[in-house]
Amino acid sequence: MKVGQDFGDMNFAVADNKKFAGMINSELNGAAWSFDKPKVVIFDDADKKYIMEEEFSTDGKSLRAFIEKFNAGEVEAWIKSEDVPAEQGALKKVKRIFLPFFEHLSFRLLAKTGTTSS
Fold it and tell me: 33, 20 in Cβ contact below 8 A?
């Protein structure tokens, strides 16, 4: 992985999709993936996952572009969650909290109260 040499602050690994099928399918929606080309996922220090949507290219350009976007904060973390329903109906109480909204709400509450999460 020659591209990896240019990003010394990151660790790179290659994994067999059959040996890691459990994690790929349960945590990364891997059942929907096509494995005709390698898949790239970045795990950050908080264990958030960032999946490269672009097709992997053997010349390293797509990997380099993905890492540069990640380092610039331009890649959104993949969150295992159901889609927000288009219509909620007349619910009188919350039955499900969707993670992107929950994280947004949590950060707003922490900022408002002046507390920190740990």
Answer: no
